[in-house]
Amino acid sequence: MEQDVTPEDLDALAYEMAPVGIVLTQDRVIRACNPAFAAMFGYPREALIDRSFAILYPTMEEFVRIRDVGVKPLREFGRYSDERIMARANGALFWCRVRGVTLTKEGDPLAKAVWSFADLSTERPVQRLTTRERQIIMHLGEGLTSKEIGRASCRERV
Questions:
Q1: How many CB atoms lie within 10 A of CB 5?
Q2: Picking from 46-55, 60-69, 97-106, 145-154, which range would have the lowest pLDDT averaged per residue?
Q3: Which residues are bridge partners to 86 per DSSP?
Q4: Residue 28, C-beta contacts closer than 8 angstroms, at least 6 positions apart
Q5: Residue 92 has pLDDT above 90, yes or no
Q6: Which residues of 106-137 are buried (b: 16+ CB within 10 A; e: fewer)?
Q7: Where does residue 50 rank: exposed (0-12), middle (13-18), buried (19+ CB within 10 A)?
Q8: Most buried in the list 30, 73, 78, 115, measured by CB within 10 Å?
Q9: What is the pLDDT of residues 50-76, one digit of tens each?
Q10: What angle do CA 10, 29, 118 make, to 5 degrees?
């Protein structure tokens, strides 16, 4: 006799077997992640739990800047997406597509959020760029015009 599969079993299976990285964060600290997320960044899953997302960024400056850029759309729309360069455990940089939704839109949108990460390294190899060049490319990926990027740059430098 075949065992019944519950919706909870299917949810857990989808999370564990998803072809993209899925992570639940609380105040930008990783609280749970699926195997694809851990493999993408080259860490054992256990090594990521309760760690700051900062370890996955090329620099601390970019970790802070992404927070500053992402809070507004999370607060206004409850979601955020971009394409950015991240760092693997071995220090290798790679492009990934990031999409997230806040679970706390009414309060601090970063208090609790769910994110998906898709590795784009096969389609988009990383070129050696300065932090500033990566910022501009990220803004282009957000669909900003040159003028909007210039205005954003002025705000980022203040």
A1: 9
A2: 145-154
A3: 94
A4: 52, 53, 54, 67, 110
A5: yes
A6: eeebbeebebbbbbbbeeeeeeeeeeeebbbb
A7: exposed
A8: 30
A9: 999 999 999 999 999 889 888 889 999
A10: 55
Q: Decide: 102 and 78 in contact? Cβ < 8 Å.
A: yes
Residue type (1 letter), 124: R
The 3-class SS string of 26-47 reads: ECCEEEEECHHHHHHHCCCHHH
Q: How far apart, in Å, do the first and last CA atoms of the chain sit?
A: 67
Q: How many CB atoms lie within 10 A of CB 157?
A: 7
- Model pLDDT for residues 5-44, shown as the tens digit of each residue: 899 999 999 999 999 999 999 999 999 999 999 999 999 9
Helix (H/G/I), strand (E/B), else coil: 70: helix
85: exposed, middle or buried (C-beta count within 10 Å: 0-12, 13-18, 19+)?
Answer: buried
Tell me the longest C-alpha to C-alpha distance in the chain.
67
As given in the structure block, the two tokens for residue 102 are 């806040």
Phi, psi of 15 (to 5 degrees): -65, -45
Report the C-alpha gap between 42 and 72 in whole angstroms: 30
